[in-house]
């Protein structure tokens, strides 16, 4: 099945676009299979825990891999916000020798936030989780082969159905090569590790401060550099530092994931002096 990947902020209209596209393909007598999260009330629990989120991405990817073939259509309706994860999906279609395309629901953050608040309370993202997911989102770029062909859709746009149909049924599939026969890039879990490591460090700092005084050196997991505690750090300040560090690191990623902890310690130390 050709693969259509839908991505965007939380509550950006992804499921609505996936449903519109499914209806169009069925009118063209194409079999359509949806791969979606179906989290509902569990979404805050999953996206608030980096390990649970990683397991979710793995399960969705495995389902796509099981269902993909050369004849019909798989529509993957999820956040798909990590560039490396979209690359992994691209590797799947290359291995299966079937076309794919990406639909980016490019809805403004304030509109997404409003749509989130209009959901039933048990299906809403918490504000903290919503803000975190928006911050982590790595926008697709058409110059990246795994994000191409790319269809960027604003909230009031009509889907370019014919162009999408042409992209997945009339375009030649990417040929397999050595990169698709082996594991994808070692850095595909970079955002996961960045999120996990920095969250663990924030928790450690908050807990260690309870028995520390200004002037102490704090040891955090994974770092051989210590935090020079010149004053007490509140949770709000640590969260702000973490968000700033993640934003900076996304723009300047390191090849050595093992250095994330040291980099965050150095970032905190510079901010305290």
Q: Topology, pairings included?
A:
Layout: E1 3-8, H1 14-27, E2 32-36, H2 43-47, H3 50-67, E3 73-77, H4 83-96, E4 100-105, H5 109-117, H6 127-136, E5 150-153, H7 161-169, H8 178-181, H9 190-209, E6 217-218, E7 227-228, H10 235-251, H11 260-272
Parallel strand pairs: 1-3, 1-4, 2-3, 4-5
Antiparallel strand pairs: 6-7
Helix pairs in contact: 3-4, 9-10
Q: Quick one: how many beta strands?
A: 7
In the sheet with the most strands, the strands line up as: 2-3-1-4-5
Poorly predicted sequence stretches spanning 5 or more consecutive residues: 178-186
Q: Strand fraction band?
A: 5-15%
Relative helix content? 40-55%
User: What class do helices, strands and sheet pairing give?
Assistant: alpha/beta
Mean pLDDT: 87
Report the span from N to C terminus: 56 Å
As a whole number of angstroms, the C-alpha radius of gyration is: 21 Å
Which outline best applies? elongated
The helix-strand sequence is EHEHHEHEHHEHHHEEHH
Largest sheet: 5 strands, parallel
Number of helices: 11
Q: What does this protein structure show overall?
A:
The structure is a single chain. With 273 residues, this protein is of the alpha/beta class. It has 11 helices and 7 strands. It has helices at residues 14-27, 43-47, 50-67, 83-96, 109-117, 127-136, 161-169, 178-181, 190-209, 235-251, 260-272, and strands at residues 3-8, 32-36, 73-77, 100-105, 150-153, 217-218, 227-228. The strands form 2 sheets. Strands 2-3-1-4-5 form a 5-stranded parallel β-sheet, sandwiched between helices. A two-stranded antiparallel ribbon has the order 6-7. Helix 3 (50-67) runs parallel beside helix 4 and helix 9 (190-209) packs antiparallel against helix 10. It is elongated, with a radius of gyration of 21 Å. It starts with a strand and ends with a helix. Mean pLDDT is 87; it is low at 178-186.
């Amino acid at each position: 099945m050709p693969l259509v990947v839908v991505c965007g902020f939380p509550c950006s209209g992804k499921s609505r676009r996936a449903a519109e596209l499914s209806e169009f393909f069925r009118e063209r007598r194409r079999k359509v299979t949806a791969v979606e999260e179906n989290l509902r009330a569990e979404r805050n629990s999953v996206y608030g825990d980096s390990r649970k989120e990683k397991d979710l991405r793995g399960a969705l990817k495995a389902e796509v891999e099981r269902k993909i073939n050369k004849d019909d259509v798989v529509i993957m309706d999820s956040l798909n916000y990590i560039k490396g994860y979209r690359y992994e999906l691209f590797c799947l279609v290359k291995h299966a020798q079937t076309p794919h395309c990406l639909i980016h629901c490019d809805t403004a953050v304030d509109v997404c936030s409003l749509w989130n608040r209009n959901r039933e309370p048990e299906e809403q993202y918490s504000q903290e989780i919503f803000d975190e997911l928006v911050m982590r989102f790595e926008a697709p770029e058409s110059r990246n082969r795994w994000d191409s062909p790319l269809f960027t859709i604003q909230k009031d746009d009509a889907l370019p159905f014919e162009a999408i149909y042409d992209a997945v049924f009339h375009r030649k599939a990417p040929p397999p090569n050595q990169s698709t026969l082996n594991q994808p890039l070692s850095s595909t879990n970079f955002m996961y590790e960045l999120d996990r490591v920095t969250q663990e460090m924030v928790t450690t700092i908050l807990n260690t401060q309870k028995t520390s005084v200004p002037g102490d050196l704090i040891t955090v997991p994974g770092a051989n550099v210590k935090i020079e505690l010149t004053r007490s750090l509140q949770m709000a300040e640590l969260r702000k530092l973490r968000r700033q560090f993640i934003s900076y690191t996304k723009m300047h990623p390191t090849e050595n994931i093992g250095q994330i902890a040291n980099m965050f310690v150095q970032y905190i130390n510079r901010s305290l002096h």
